[in-house]
Design a protein that fits this description.
Layout (H helix, E strand, L loop, with lengths): L1 H18 L4 H10 L11 H4 L3 E5 L14 E5 H7 L4
Antiparallel strand pairs: 1-2
Length: about 90
């Protein structure tokens, strides 16, 4: 019985992980939509040599989904400064 519960729990966990996984295609779509610019400070890799991150507006840990409407492009500095504040 305990193994069955553990297996069901693991299956649920894996389904959630799969739903929240960011694909390369989704990442590309977000970067393209945002013009490859940080949505907070406007930085882009060409002019400032920054690394861009695709960020969850509402963190997954707080119920946010990995979907276009909840994703934004942020530079590494703005993203790390944001942390998990929301």
């Amino acid at each position: 019985m305990k193994r069955l519960r553990e297996a069901q729990s693991t299956a649920t966990f894996l389904r959630r992980q799969e739903r929240n996984r960011m694909t390369a295609s989704l990442r590309y779509q977000v970067l393209s939509r945002d013009g490859s610019r940080c949505q907070q400070c406007g930085a882009n890799p060409q002019t400032r040599g920054v690394t861009l991150h695709v960020d969850h507006i509402v963190p997954v840990s707080k119920g946010g989904k990995t979907e276009m409407g909840n994703l934004q492009t942020l530079c590494e500095f703005c993203n790390l400064g944001k942390s998990n504040r929301h």
